[in-house]
Amino acid sequence: MFFHIAGITKARKLADYYTVNQHGTASLFQTLQRQKISPRKIIYLSSIAASGPSAEKIPIKENDKPHPIHPYGESKLLGEKEALKFRNNFSLIIIRVGAVFGPRDKDFLSYFKIINKGILPSLAFKRRRLSLCYIEDLVHAFDLCLQKDIESGEIFNIADPQPYTWDELGREAGKILGKKLFSVKFPLCLLYPIALISEGLSNLRKRTTTFDRRRLREMRQPGWIIDTKKAEERLAFSLKFSIQEGLQKSLTWYIDQGWL
């Protein structure tokens, strides 16, 4: 078995997304072929970002035409295409996963830190829904891919079938943390300059940032929802953990490690 889960989700230079997520994937498969290494199965971990945003209430299916809007999503889609060039050489399965959360994750951590202070940050424009996936459910999907006899090159969406808004996620986290939340709305007119400042500080410090103008564009999309019916039917995929259980395990880990 071979799991290709390496990649970058944040980069200061746009070229870095393609160097790692596209060309790194191509190099991996070329090396496997050149060295005549033949894993029984290869699972390539892609992302909802490769599919692109969805309509407000219509989840994206695996066979819908991808339309990524961020260099990260574009690079992951190109990584998929590099992998698919070898579908006749290896037994390949591609997983497009929703936004992954769980212990050790740092992308959601900054949001949970705000919640832990009793603040529910809320965007003052229409609430968008997002497909989420707790890390142990993703691992469960990996295991199912290994067990099932799947044609090489198949793509599966993996996520909680029920999408959530950030407000809903924050309220659930607040309940677990025992916090009475005070909602603070951020008007759109403030978010753009905040994104500019964040980019500027990122460049000065030579560090990546989780919020820039490209991320703001993602936030303004109608939705980020993927359809998981194919995985449910073909892989017998179902959640092992509810959103509440996944958050409980994640937040407990953050607290035990002193991250919260």
Please provide a written account of the structure.
This protein has helices spanning 14-34, 48-51, 71-84, 109-116, 135-147, 166-177, 188-205, 213-219, 229-234, 243-256, and strands at 2-4, 42-47, 92-97, 99-101, 119-123, 129-130, 132-134, 154-158, 182-186, 223-224. The protein has one domain: 3-Layer(aba) Sandwich (Rossmann fold). It has a 4-stranded parallel beta sheet, with helices on both faces. A two-stranded parallel ribbon has the order 4-7. It has a two-stranded parallel sheet with strand order 5-9. The protein is an alpha/beta fold and 260 residues long. The mean pLDDT is 89. It is globular, with a radius of gyration of 19 Å. The longest helix is centred in the first third of the chain and has 21 residues, at 14-34. Helix 1 links the parallel strand 1 and strand 2 (42-47). It is 45% helix and 15% strand. It contains 10 helices and 10 strands.
**Tally of alpha and pi helices:** 10
Portion in beta strands:
15-25%
Going by CATH, the architecture would be 3-Layer(aba) Sandwich
The name CATH uses for the topology is Rossmann fold
- The side-by-side strand order for the widest beta sheet comes to 1-2-3-8
